[in-house]
Request: fold
Amino acid sequence: MNPTMLRVSDVWKSFGQESVLRGISVDVTEHEVVVLIGASGSGKSTLLRCINGLETVDAGSIVLDNDLDVTAFRTDLDAVRRRVGIVFQSYNLFPHMTVLKNITLGQRKVLGRSSAEAQERGRQLLARFGLEDKADEYPDRLSGGQQQRVAIVRAVAMSPEMLLFDEITSALDPLLVGEVLEAVRELKEEGMTIVMATHEMGFARDVADRVCFLDAGVVLEQGPPQEVLRDPTERRTRDFLARILG
Amino acid sequence: MTEPGGDTVAAARAGSTPYVDPARVRYRKRKSLRDAAIGMISLIVTATVVTVVIVRTPGWSAVQETFFSPEAFAESFPGLLDAFWLNIRIFLIAEPLILIVGLTVALVRRLRSPIFLPLRIVATVYVDIFRGVPTLLVILLLGFGVPALQLQGAPDDVLVWGVVALVLSYGAYVAEVFRAGIDSVHPSQQMAARSLGLTSWQTNRYVVLPQAVRNVTPPLLNDFISLQKDTALVSVLGPIELLRRAQIDASFTFNYTPYVAAAALFIALTIPMSRFTDWVQARQRRRRGAGTDS
Ligand SMILES: Nc1ncnc2c1ncn2[C@@H]1O[C@H](COP(=O)(O)OP(=O)(O)OP(=O)(O)O)[C@@H](O)[C@H]1O
Ligand SMILES: [Mg+2]
Reply:
Protein backbone atom coordinates (compact mmCIF):
# COMPACT_ATOMS: atom_id res chain seq x y z
CA MET A 1 0.00 0.00 0.00
CA ASN A 2 1.31 3.41 -1.01
CA PRO A 3 1.66 6.08 1.66
CA THR A 4 -1.09 8.60 2.17
CA MET A 5 -0.31 11.78 0.29
CA LEU A 6 -3.33 13.87 1.17
CA ARG A 7 -5.67 13.57 4.11
CA VAL A 8 -8.81 15.71 4.13
CA SER A 9 -10.59 15.27 7.47
CA ASP A 10 -13.96 16.65 8.39
CA VAL A 11 -13.63 19.87 6.42
CA TRP A 12 -16.38 22.49 6.61
CA LYS A 13 -16.68 25.50 4.36
CA SER A 14 -19.50 27.94 3.84
CA PHE A 15 -19.99 31.10 1.83
CA GLY A 16 -22.19 33.37 3.90
CA GLN A 17 -25.25 31.33 4.78
CA GLU A 18 -24.56 28.73 2.11
CA SER A 19 -22.87 25.69 3.61
CA VAL A 20 -20.94 24.02 0.79
CA LEU A 21 -18.64 21.48 2.45
CA ARG A 22 -20.23 19.77 5.45
CA GLY A 23 -17.60 17.66 7.14
CA ILE A 24 -16.04 16.12 4.07
CA SER A 25 -13.24 13.57 4.42
CA VAL A 26 -11.11 12.05 1.65
CA ASP A 27 -7.72 10.32 1.64
CA VAL A 28 -5.52 10.15 -1.42
CA THR A 29 -2.52 7.84 -1.62
CA GLU A 30 0.58 8.33 -3.71
CA HIS A 31 0.18 7.62 -7.45
CA GLU A 32 -3.57 7.44 -7.08
CA VAL A 33 -6.02 9.09 -9.45
CA VAL A 34 -9.15 10.17 -7.61
CA VAL A 35 -12.09 11.50 -9.61
CA LEU A 36 -14.69 13.70 -7.93
CA ILE A 37 -18.16 13.58 -9.40
CA GLY A 38 -21.34 15.25 -8.26
CA ALA A 39 -24.02 17.67 -9.28
CA SER A 40 -23.23 21.26 -10.08
CA GLY A 41 -22.84 23.13 -6.81
CA SER A 42 -21.97 20.01 -4.82
CA GLY A 43 -18.63 21.54 -3.80
CA LYS A 44 -16.06 19.86 -6.07
CA SER A 45 -14.34 23.10 -7.02
CA THR A 46 -14.52 24.38 -3.47
CA LEU A 47 -12.81 21.25 -2.17
CA LEU A 48 -10.02 21.50 -4.74
CA ARG A 49 -9.48 25.16 -3.97
CA CYS A 50 -9.27 24.44 -0.25
CA ILE A 51 -6.64 21.74 -0.86
CA ASN A 52 -4.52 24.28 -2.75
CA GLY A 53 -5.05 26.98 -0.15
CA LEU A 54 -6.96 29.26 -2.52
CA GLU A 55 -9.83 29.13 -0.02
CA THR A 56 -9.47 28.87 3.76
CA VAL A 57 -11.56 26.23 5.47
CA ASP A 58 -13.95 26.97 8.35
CA ALA A 59 -13.18 23.76 10.26
CA GLY A 60 -11.34 20.47 9.80
CA SER A 61 -7.89 19.78 8.47
CA ILE A 62 -6.10 19.10 5.20
CA VAL A 63 -2.67 17.54 5.58
CA LEU A 64 -0.13 16.89 2.85
CA ASP A 65 2.33 14.05 3.19
CA ASN A 66 1.67 13.79 6.92
CA ASP A 67 3.83 16.86 7.45
CA LEU A 68 2.31 20.01 5.98
CA ASP A 69 -1.00 21.15 7.40
CA VAL A 70 -2.64 23.32 4.77
CA THR A 71 -5.30 24.43 7.22
CA ALA A 72 -3.00 25.44 10.11
CA PHE A 73 -3.72 29.06 11.07
CA ARG A 74 -0.29 30.35 10.08
CA THR A 75 0.58 27.96 7.33
CA ASP A 76 2.84 29.03 4.47
CA LEU A 77 0.45 28.79 1.55
CA ASP A 78 3.18 29.48 -0.99
CA ALA A 79 4.89 26.31 0.26
CA VAL A 80 1.63 24.40 -0.20
CA ARG A 81 1.25 25.68 -3.73
CA ARG A 82 4.81 24.72 -4.59
CA ARG A 83 3.86 21.13 -3.82
CA VAL A 84 0.31 21.01 -5.19
CA GLY A 85 -0.44 22.23 -8.72
CA ILE A 86 -3.90 23.13 -9.95
CA VAL A 87 -5.38 23.54 -13.43
CA PHE A 88 -8.66 25.35 -13.93
CA GLN A 89 -11.57 25.05 -16.29
CA SER A 90 -10.70 28.39 -17.91
CA TYR A 91 -7.02 27.81 -18.66
CA ASN A 92 -5.97 31.17 -17.16
CA LEU A 93 -2.75 31.39 -19.14
CA PHE A 94 -0.96 34.74 -18.91
CA PRO A 95 -1.95 36.45 -22.17
CA HIS A 96 1.00 38.86 -22.27
CA MET A 97 3.61 36.10 -22.26
CA THR A 98 4.60 33.49 -24.79
CA VAL A 99 3.80 29.89 -24.04
CA LEU A 100 7.38 29.24 -22.96
CA LYS A 101 7.41 32.29 -20.67
CA ASN A 102 4.16 31.07 -19.12
CA ILE A 103 5.86 27.81 -18.31
CA THR A 104 9.17 29.21 -17.06
CA LEU A 105 7.88 32.09 -14.89
CA GLY A 106 7.03 29.97 -11.86
CA GLN A 107 10.08 27.75 -12.24
CA ARG A 108 12.38 30.77 -12.16
CA LYS A 109 10.67 32.96 -9.59
CA VAL A 110 9.33 30.31 -7.24
CA LEU A 111 11.73 27.40 -7.59
CA GLY A 112 14.77 29.53 -8.34
CA ARG A 113 15.72 27.57 -11.43
CA SER A 114 18.02 29.28 -13.90
CA SER A 115 16.50 30.57 -17.09
CA ALA A 116 18.30 27.94 -19.16
CA GLU A 117 17.20 25.16 -16.85
CA ALA A 118 13.60 26.33 -16.84
CA GLN A 119 13.50 26.66 -20.62
CA GLU A 120 15.02 23.26 -21.13
CA ARG A 121 12.44 21.64 -18.87
CA GLY A 122 9.69 23.72 -20.50
CA ARG A 123 10.64 22.64 -23.99
CA GLN A 124 10.93 19.00 -22.96
CA LEU A 125 7.47 19.05 -21.46
CA LEU A 126 5.98 20.89 -24.43
CA ALA A 127 7.44 18.26 -26.71
CA ARG A 128 6.01 15.50 -24.59
CA PHE A 129 2.54 16.98 -24.87
CA GLY A 130 2.84 17.63 -28.60
CA LEU A 131 3.27 21.38 -28.30
CA GLU A 132 6.93 21.83 -29.24
CA ASP A 133 6.14 24.18 -32.11
CA LYS A 134 4.01 26.45 -29.89
CA ALA A 135 6.75 27.55 -27.48
CA ASP A 136 7.01 31.06 -28.90
CA GLU A 137 3.32 31.65 -29.64
CA TYR A 138 1.08 33.83 -27.51
CA PRO A 139 -1.77 31.94 -25.81
CA ASP A 140 -4.53 33.64 -27.79
CA ARG A 141 -3.17 32.11 -30.98
CA LEU A 142 -3.79 28.58 -29.69
CA SER A 143 -6.92 26.46 -29.75
CA GLY A 144 -8.70 25.80 -26.46
CA GLY A 145 -7.30 22.30 -26.27
CA GLN A 146 -3.77 23.54 -26.86
CA GLN A 147 -4.20 26.27 -24.24
CA GLN A 148 -5.41 23.77 -21.71
CA ARG A 149 -2.48 21.46 -22.43
CA VAL A 150 -0.13 24.41 -21.94
CA ALA A 151 -1.84 25.09 -18.61
CA ILE A 152 -1.20 21.47 -17.64
CA VAL A 153 2.44 21.76 -18.70
CA ARG A 154 2.74 24.97 -16.67
CA ALA A 155 1.56 23.13 -13.58
CA VAL A 156 3.68 20.02 -14.26
CA ALA A 157 6.80 22.12 -14.87
CA MET A 158 6.76 23.09 -11.19
CA SER A 159 7.45 19.42 -10.33
CA PRO A 160 4.48 19.20 -7.94
CA GLU A 161 3.82 16.17 -5.75
CA MET A 162 0.19 16.23 -6.69
CA LEU A 163 -2.03 17.81 -9.32
CA LEU A 164 -5.60 19.05 -8.98
CA PHE A 165 -7.72 19.33 -12.12
CA ASP A 166 -10.98 21.26 -11.92
CA GLU A 167 -13.21 20.35 -14.85
CA ILE A 168 -10.39 21.01 -17.25
CA THR A 169 -12.38 19.89 -20.27
CA SER A 170 -15.68 21.66 -19.58
CA ALA A 171 -14.85 24.79 -21.58
CA LEU A 172 -13.66 22.82 -24.59
CA ASP A 173 -15.18 22.01 -27.91
CA PRO A 174 -16.08 18.27 -27.79
CA LEU A 175 -13.51 17.59 -30.50
CA LEU A 176 -10.73 18.94 -28.28
CA VAL A 177 -11.62 17.09 -25.09
CA GLY A 178 -9.74 13.97 -26.14
CA GLU A 179 -6.33 15.55 -26.47
CA VAL A 180 -6.53 17.05 -22.99
CA LEU A 181 -7.70 13.82 -21.39
CA GLU A 182 -4.89 12.06 -23.19
CA ALA A 183 -2.45 14.38 -21.42
CA VAL A 184 -3.98 13.45 -18.07
CA ARG A 185 -3.72 9.78 -18.89
CA GLU A 186 -0.07 10.26 -19.71
CA LEU A 187 0.54 11.90 -16.33
CA LYS A 188 -1.14 9.01 -14.59
CA GLU A 189 1.12 6.56 -16.37
CA GLU A 190 4.11 8.43 -15.02
CA GLY A 191 2.78 7.95 -11.53
CA MET A 192 1.48 11.44 -10.81
CA THR A 193 -0.99 11.71 -7.95
CA ILE A 194 -4.12 13.36 -9.30
CA VAL A 195 -7.42 14.61 -7.89
CA MET A 196 -9.79 15.74 -10.59
CA ALA A 197 -13.34 16.98 -10.80
CA THR A 198 -14.97 16.02 -14.07
CA HIS A 199 -18.21 15.28 -15.83
CA GLU A 200 -16.47 12.92 -18.29
CA MET A 201 -17.81 9.63 -16.97
CA GLY A 202 -16.18 7.55 -19.69
CA PHE A 203 -12.80 8.94 -18.76
CA ALA A 204 -13.47 8.39 -15.06
CA ARG A 205 -14.28 4.76 -15.79
CA ASP A 206 -11.05 4.26 -17.76
CA VAL A 207 -8.54 6.18 -15.71
CA ALA A 208 -9.76 6.66 -12.14
CA ASP A 209 -8.45 4.44 -9.39
CA ARG A 210 -11.28 5.67 -7.25
CA VAL A 211 -14.42 7.70 -7.83
CA CYS A 212 -15.93 9.87 -5.09
CA PHE A 213 -19.51 11.03 -5.39
CA LEU A 214 -20.02 14.35 -3.62
CA ASP A 215 -23.47 15.19 -2.42
CA ALA A 216 -24.64 17.85 0.03
CA GLY A 217 -21.09 18.64 1.09
CA VAL A 218 -19.89 15.14 1.92
CA VAL A 219 -18.57 12.12 0.04
CA LEU A 220 -21.70 10.05 -0.12
CA GLU A 221 -20.18 7.07 -1.86
CA GLN A 222 -16.72 6.10 -3.08
CA GLY A 223 -14.91 3.16 -4.56
CA PRO A 224 -13.44 1.76 -7.77
CA PRO A 225 -15.16 3.13 -10.88
CA GLN A 226 -16.65 -0.25 -11.80
CA GLU A 227 -18.57 -0.26 -8.54
CA VAL A 228 -19.56 3.38 -8.14
CA LEU A 229 -20.38 4.03 -11.77
CA ARG A 230 -21.88 0.66 -12.69
CA ASP A 231 -23.50 -0.44 -9.51
CA PRO A 232 -23.87 2.35 -6.99
CA THR A 233 -25.36 1.49 -3.63
CA GLU A 234 -26.76 4.96 -2.89
CA ARG A 235 -29.98 6.06 -4.47
CA ARG A 236 -28.76 9.60 -4.98
CA THR A 237 -25.69 8.34 -6.83
CA ARG A 238 -27.92 6.34 -9.13
CA ASP A 239 -30.14 9.37 -9.76
CA PHE A 240 -27.12 11.54 -10.53
CA LEU A 241 -25.64 8.98 -12.93
CA ALA A 242 -28.97 8.46 -14.62
CA ARG A 243 -29.25 12.18 -15.18
CA ILE A 244 -25.74 12.72 -16.44
CA LEU A 245 -25.59 9.65 -18.65
CA GLY A 246 -28.93 10.61 -20.14
CA MET B 1 -13.50 24.96 -68.71
CA THR B 2 -13.27 27.79 -71.19
CA GLU B 3 -13.59 30.86 -68.95
CA PRO B 4 -10.43 32.95 -68.46
CA GLY B 5 -8.63 32.08 -65.27
CA GLY B 6 -9.86 28.49 -65.42
CA ASP B 7 -6.36 27.24 -64.76
CA THR B 8 -6.02 29.40 -61.66
CA VAL B 9 -9.32 28.11 -60.28
CA ALA B 10 -8.21 24.56 -60.81
CA ALA B 11 -4.89 25.29 -59.12
CA ALA B 12 -6.63 26.99 -56.19
CA ARG B 13 -9.04 24.10 -55.80
CA ALA B 14 -6.19 21.63 -55.69
CA GLY B 15 -4.08 23.57 -53.21
CA SER B 16 -4.96 25.96 -50.43
CA THR B 17 -4.35 29.30 -52.17
CA PRO B 18 -7.23 31.77 -52.37
CA TYR B 19 -8.99 32.45 -55.66
CA VAL B 20 -10.53 35.75 -56.75
CA ASP B 21 -12.23 36.26 -60.11
CA PRO B 22 -9.78 38.36 -62.25
CA ALA B 23 -12.67 40.60 -63.36
CA ARG B 24 -13.42 41.35 -59.73
CA VAL B 25 -9.74 42.10 -59.07
CA ARG B 26 -9.80 44.69 -61.87
CA TYR B 27 -13.07 46.15 -60.58
CA ARG B 28 -11.71 46.48 -57.04
CA LYS B 29 -8.55 48.17 -58.28
CA ARG B 30 -10.55 50.65 -60.38
CA LYS B 31 -12.91 51.34 -57.50
CA SER B 32 -10.13 52.07 -55.02
CA LEU B 33 -8.45 54.42 -57.54
CA ARG B 34 -11.74 56.18 -58.18
CA ASP B 35 -12.45 56.50 -54.43
CA ALA B 36 -9.05 58.09 -53.88
CA ALA B 37 -9.58 60.53 -56.76
CA ILE B 38 -13.05 61.53 -55.59
CA GLY B 39 -11.77 62.14 -52.06
CA MET B 40 -8.94 64.28 -53.37
CA ILE B 41 -11.13 66.38 -55.63
CA SER B 42 -13.75 66.85 -52.94
CA LEU B 43 -11.06 68.00 -50.52
CA ILE B 44 -9.57 70.53 -52.97
CA VAL B 45 -12.95 71.97 -53.93
CA THR B 46 -14.05 72.34 -50.31
CA ALA B 47 -10.78 73.95 -49.27
CA THR B 48 -10.94 76.41 -52.16
CA VAL B 49 -14.53 77.38 -51.45
CA VAL B 50 -13.88 77.85 -47.73
CA THR B 51 -10.78 79.93 -48.40
CA VAL B 52 -12.53 82.12 -50.95
CA VAL B 53 -15.52 82.67 -48.66
CA ILE B 54 -13.31 83.57 -45.71
CA VAL B 55 -11.09 85.91 -47.69
CA ARG B 56 -14.11 87.63 -49.30
CA THR B 57 -15.77 88.18 -45.93
CA PRO B 58 -15.80 91.85 -44.98
CA GLY B 59 -13.44 92.30 -42.07
CA TRP B 60 -11.13 89.50 -43.20
CA SER B 61 -8.24 91.88 -43.72
CA ALA B 62 -8.67 93.20 -40.18
CA VAL B 63 -8.73 89.62 -38.85
CA GLN B 64 -5.69 88.75 -40.88
CA GLU B 65 -3.82 91.79 -39.65
CA THR B 66 -4.69 91.15 -35.99
CA PHE B 67 -4.27 87.38 -35.84
CA PHE B 68 -2.14 86.34 -38.79
CA SER B 69 0.28 89.19 -39.33
CA PRO B 70 3.49 87.89 -40.95
CA GLU B 71 5.55 90.74 -39.51
CA ALA B 72 4.30 90.23 -35.96
CA PHE B 73 4.90 86.50 -36.42
CA ALA B 74 8.47 86.94 -37.63
CA GLU B 75 9.18 89.29 -34.78
CA SER B 76 7.85 87.19 -31.92
CA PHE B 77 8.50 83.65 -33.13
CA PRO B 78 12.16 83.23 -32.02
CA GLY B 79 11.29 84.46 -28.53
CA LEU B 80 8.26 82.16 -28.39
CA LEU B 81 10.31 79.18 -29.46
CA ASP B 82 12.78 79.97 -26.73
CA ALA B 83 10.04 80.23 -24.12
CA PHE B 84 8.48 76.99 -25.38
CA TRP B 85 11.65 75.14 -24.44
CA LEU B 86 10.70 75.83 -20.81
CA ASN B 87 7.28 74.16 -21.31
CA ILE B 88 9.00 71.16 -22.80
CA ARG B 89 11.41 70.91 -19.91
CA ILE B 90 8.59 71.18 -17.38
CA PHE B 91 6.77 68.40 -19.21
CA LEU B 92 9.82 66.17 -19.45
CA ILE B 93 10.58 66.50 -15.75
CA ALA B 94 7.00 66.27 -14.51
CA GLU B 95 5.85 63.30 -16.60
CA PRO B 96 8.18 60.60 -15.21
CA LEU B 97 7.54 61.86 -11.68
CA ILE B 98 3.79 61.69 -12.30
CA LEU B 99 4.07 58.09 -13.47
CA ILE B 100 6.05 57.17 -10.38
CA VAL B 101 3.63 58.92 -8.02
CA GLY B 102 0.59 57.50 -9.80
CA LEU B 103 1.85 53.92 -9.83
CA THR B 104 3.04 54.08 -6.23
CA VAL B 105 -0.27 55.45 -4.99
CA ALA B 106 -2.24 52.88 -7.01
CA LEU B 107 -0.15 50.06 -5.53
CA VAL B 108 -0.38 51.41 -2.00
CA ARG B 109 -4.15 51.46 -2.26
CA ARG B 110 -4.02 47.74 -3.10
CA LEU B 111 -1.97 46.71 -0.05
CA ARG B 112 -4.07 44.43 2.11
CA SER B 113 -1.96 43.93 5.22
CA PRO B 114 -3.41 45.80 8.24
CA ILE B 115 0.01 47.28 9.04
CA PHE B 116 -0.31 49.45 5.92
CA LEU B 117 -3.65 50.92 6.95
CA PRO B 118 -2.15 54.40 7.59
CA LEU B 119 -0.47 54.37 4.17
CA ARG B 120 -3.70 53.34 2.50
CA ILE B 121 -5.56 56.15 4.19
CA VAL B 122 -2.92 58.68 3.16
CA ALA B 123 -3.11 57.49 -0.44
CA THR B 124 -6.89 57.66 -0.51
CA VAL B 125 -7.02 61.12 1.04
CA TYR B 126 -4.33 62.34 -1.36
CA VAL B 127 -6.30 61.20 -4.40
CA ASP B 128 -9.55 62.65 -3.08
CA ILE B 129 -7.99 66.05 -2.40
CA PHE B 130 -5.87 66.53 -5.47
CA ARG B 131 -8.50 65.31 -7.88
CA GLY B 132 -10.97 67.73 -6.38
CA VAL B 133 -8.87 70.91 -6.38
CA PRO B 134 -8.30 72.78 -9.66
CA THR B 135 -4.72 72.38 -10.89
CA LEU B 136 -4.36 76.15 -11.12
CA LEU B 137 -5.26 76.51 -7.46
CA VAL B 138 -2.67 73.91 -6.43
CA ILE B 139 -0.05 75.78 -8.44
CA LEU B 140 -0.91 79.10 -6.81
CA LEU B 141 -1.02 77.56 -3.35
CA LEU B 142 2.34 75.84 -3.62
CA GLY B 143 4.06 78.39 -5.84
CA PHE B 144 3.29 81.40 -3.68
CA GLY B 145 2.52 79.68 -0.39
CA VAL B 146 5.55 77.50 0.22
CA PRO B 147 8.24 80.09 -0.57
CA ALA B 148 6.37 82.50 1.73
CA LEU B 149 7.05 80.11 4.60
CA GLN B 150 10.77 80.70 4.10
CA LEU B 151 11.48 77.13 5.11
CA GLN B 152 15.09 76.28 5.73
CA GLY B 153 16.44 74.31 2.79
CA ALA B 154 13.24 74.41 0.75
CA PRO B 155 13.93 75.60 -2.78
CA ASP B 156 12.67 79.15 -3.30
CA ASP B 157 12.48 78.79 -7.07
CA VAL B 158 8.78 79.11 -7.93
CA LEU B 159 9.37 76.94 -10.96
CA VAL B 160 10.19 73.99 -8.72
CA TRP B 161 6.93 74.43 -6.86
CA GLY B 162 5.04 74.78 -10.10
CA VAL B 163 6.37 71.41 -11.23
CA VAL B 164 5.62 69.87 -7.83
CA ALA B 165 2.05 71.15 -8.09
CA LEU B 166 1.62 69.64 -11.56
CA VAL B 167 3.05 66.32 -10.33
CA LEU B 168 0.72 66.22 -7.33
CA SER B 169 -2.33 67.18 -9.34
CA TYR B 170 -1.71 64.83 -12.25
CA GLY B 171 -0.37 62.09 -9.96
CA ALA B 172 -3.80 61.74 -8.42
CA TYR B 173 -5.44 61.29 -11.83
CA VAL B 174 -2.83 58.87 -13.06
CA ALA B 175 -3.11 56.84 -9.82
CA GLU B 176 -6.79 56.32 -10.60
CA VAL B 177 -6.01 55.38 -14.19
CA PHE B 178 -3.54 52.75 -12.97
CA ARG B 179 -6.04 51.51 -10.42
CA ALA B 180 -8.68 51.07 -13.10
CA GLY B 181 -6.08 49.22 -15.17
CA ILE B 182 -5.28 46.87 -12.32
CA ASP B 183 -8.96 46.23 -11.74
CA SER B 184 -9.39 45.41 -15.42
CA VAL B 185 -7.13 42.37 -15.08
CA HIS B 186 -9.40 39.42 -14.35
CA PRO B 187 -9.06 37.99 -10.81
CA SER B 188 -8.50 34.54 -12.30
CA GLN B 189 -5.10 35.78 -13.47
CA GLN B 190 -4.11 36.43 -9.89
CA MET B 191 -5.49 33.10 -8.81
CA ALA B 192 -3.46 31.34 -11.50
CA ALA B 193 -0.30 33.17 -10.49
CA ARG B 194 -0.78 32.49 -6.79
CA SER B 195 -1.54 28.85 -7.46
CA LEU B 196 1.93 28.53 -9.02
CA GLY B 197 3.36 29.70 -5.71
CA LEU B 198 4.21 33.24 -6.80
CA THR B 199 4.09 35.68 -3.89
CA SER B 200 1.65 38.54 -3.98
CA TRP B 201 4.47 40.95 -4.92
CA GLN B 202 5.65 38.66 -7.75
CA THR B 203 2.06 38.29 -8.92
CA ASN B 204 1.75 42.06 -9.18
CA ARG B 205 5.12 42.51 -10.79
CA TYR B 206 4.98 39.81 -13.45
CA VAL B 207 1.30 39.12 -14.06
CA VAL B 208 -1.03 41.94 -13.03
CA LEU B 209 0.93 45.13 -13.71
CA PRO B 210 2.18 44.31 -17.22
CA GLN B 211 -1.40 43.62 -18.29
CA ALA B 212 -2.76 46.64 -16.40
CA VAL B 213 -0.27 49.04 -18.00
CA ARG B 214 -1.08 47.69 -21.43
CA ASN B 215 -4.78 48.23 -20.82
CA VAL B 216 -4.39 51.84 -19.71
CA THR B 217 -1.77 53.06 -22.17
CA PRO B 218 -4.30 55.05 -24.26
CA PRO B 219 -5.82 56.95 -21.31
CA LEU B 220 -2.33 57.56 -19.92
CA LEU B 221 -1.19 59.07 -23.21
CA ASN B 222 -4.31 61.18 -23.15
CA ASP B 223 -3.26 62.56 -19.77
CA PHE B 224 0.20 63.26 -21.20
CA ILE B 225 -1.36 65.41 -23.90
CA SER B 226 -3.37 67.29 -21.31
CA LEU B 227 -0.21 67.87 -19.26
CA GLN B 228 1.63 69.28 -22.25
CA LYS B 229 -0.95 72.04 -22.38
CA ASP B 230 -1.18 72.53 -18.64
CA THR B 231 2.51 73.35 -18.41
CA ALA B 232 1.25 76.83 -19.40
CA LEU B 233 -0.47 77.14 -16.01
CA VAL B 234 2.92 77.54 -14.35
CA SER B 235 3.05 80.98 -15.97
CA VAL B 236 0.86 82.38 -13.18
CA LEU B 237 3.88 82.07 -10.91
CA GLY B 238 5.97 84.31 -13.17
CA PRO B 239 8.28 82.06 -15.20
CA ILE B 240 8.22 83.16 -18.81
CA GLU B 241 7.05 80.13 -20.67
CA LEU B 242 5.30 80.13 -24.02
CA LEU B 243 1.90 81.50 -23.00
CA ARG B 244 3.40 84.26 -20.85
CA ARG B 245 5.82 85.22 -23.63
CA ALA B 246 2.94 85.46 -26.11
CA GLN B 247 0.95 87.54 -23.68
CA ILE B 248 3.83 89.97 -23.24
CA ASP B 249 4.41 90.25 -26.97
CA ALA B 250 0.70 90.74 -27.68
CA SER B 251 0.30 93.45 -25.06
CA PHE B 252 3.24 95.39 -26.48
CA THR B 253 2.05 95.35 -30.06
CA PHE B 254 -1.74 95.12 -29.65
CA ASN B 255 -1.49 92.27 -32.10
CA TYR B 256 -2.74 88.73 -31.34
CA THR B 257 -0.52 86.90 -33.78
CA PRO B 258 1.82 85.74 -30.96
CA TYR B 259 -1.16 83.95 -29.34
CA VAL B 260 -1.93 82.17 -32.57
CA ALA B 261 1.73 81.26 -32.97
CA ALA B 262 1.81 79.94 -29.39
CA ALA B 263 -1.29 77.85 -30.09
CA ALA B 264 0.40 76.46 -33.18
CA LEU B 265 3.43 75.47 -31.13
CA PHE B 266 1.31 73.64 -28.55
CA ILE B 267 -0.50 71.84 -31.34
CA ALA B 268 2.78 70.91 -32.97
CA LEU B 269 3.69 69.11 -29.76
CA THR B 270 0.35 67.43 -29.08
CA ILE B 271 -0.45 66.21 -32.58
CA PRO B 272 2.37 63.65 -32.74
CA MET B 273 1.26 62.43 -29.33
CA SER B 274 -2.36 62.14 -30.52
CA ARG B 275 -1.32 60.15 -33.58
CA PHE B 276 0.84 57.94 -31.38
CA THR B 277 -2.15 57.34 -29.08
CA ASP B 278 -4.31 56.43 -32.08
CA TRP B 279 -1.64 54.03 -33.25
CA VAL B 280 -1.34 52.35 -29.85
CA GLN B 281 -5.12 52.01 -29.63
CA ALA B 282 -5.39 50.56 -33.12
CA ARG B 283 -2.65 48.09 -32.34
CA GLN B 284 -4.42 46.96 -29.20
CA ARG B 285 -7.67 46.52 -31.08
CA ARG B 286 -5.88 44.42 -33.66
CA ARG B 287 -4.27 42.29 -30.99
CA ARG B 288 -7.57 41.69 -29.26
CA GLY B 289 -9.27 40.98 -32.54
CA ALA B 290 -6.60 38.44 -33.38
CA GLY B 291 -7.51 36.31 -30.40
CA THR B 292 -9.64 33.22 -30.90
CA ASP B 293 -11.99 32.66 -28.04
CA SER B 294 -12.57 28.96 -27.96
N1 LIG C 1 -16.28 32.48 -3.80
C1 LIG C 1 -17.56 32.11 -3.59
N2 LIG C 1 -18.43 32.97 -3.02
C2 LIG C 1 -19.71 32.60 -2.79
N3 LIG C 1 -20.22 31.40 -3.11
C3 LIG C 1 -19.42 30.50 -3.68
C4 LIG C 1 -18.04 30.80 -3.96
N4 LIG C 1 -17.48 29.72 -4.53
C5 LIG C 1 -18.45 28.79 -4.61
N5 LIG C 1 -19.62 29.24 -4.10
C6 LIG C 1 -20.87 28.49 -4.01
O1 LIG C 1 -20.57 27.24 -3.46
C7 LIG C 1 -21.35 26.23 -4.10
C8 LIG C 1 -20.46 25.10 -4.56
O2 LIG C 1 -19.68 25.57 -5.64
P1 LIG C 1 -18.58 24.71 -6.35
O3 LIG C 1 -18.01 25.56 -7.39
O4 LIG C 1 -17.64 24.14 -5.36
O5 LIG C 1 -19.43 23.54 -6.98
P2 LIG C 1 -19.00 22.47 -8.06
O6 LIG C 1 -19.31 21.15 -7.49
O7 LIG C 1 -17.61 22.72 -8.49
O8 LIG C 1 -20.01 22.78 -9.23
P3 LIG C 1 -19.78 22.75 -10.80
O9 LIG C 1 -19.96 21.36 -11.24
O10 LIG C 1 -20.87 23.65 -11.32
O11 LIG C 1 -18.43 23.30 -11.06
C9 LIG C 1 -22.12 26.88 -5.21
O12 LIG C 1 -23.45 27.01 -4.83
C10 LIG C 1 -21.48 28.23 -5.35
O13 LIG C 1 -22.45 29.19 -5.64
MG1 LIG D 1 -16.72 23.49 -10.25
Summary: The mean pLDDT of chain A is 93. Chain A touches chain B at residues 52, 54, 78-79, 81-82, 85-86, 88, 90, 92-96, 105-106, 109-111, 140-144, 154-155, 158, 172-173, 176 (CB under 8 Å). Chain A has one domain: 4-94+162-245.
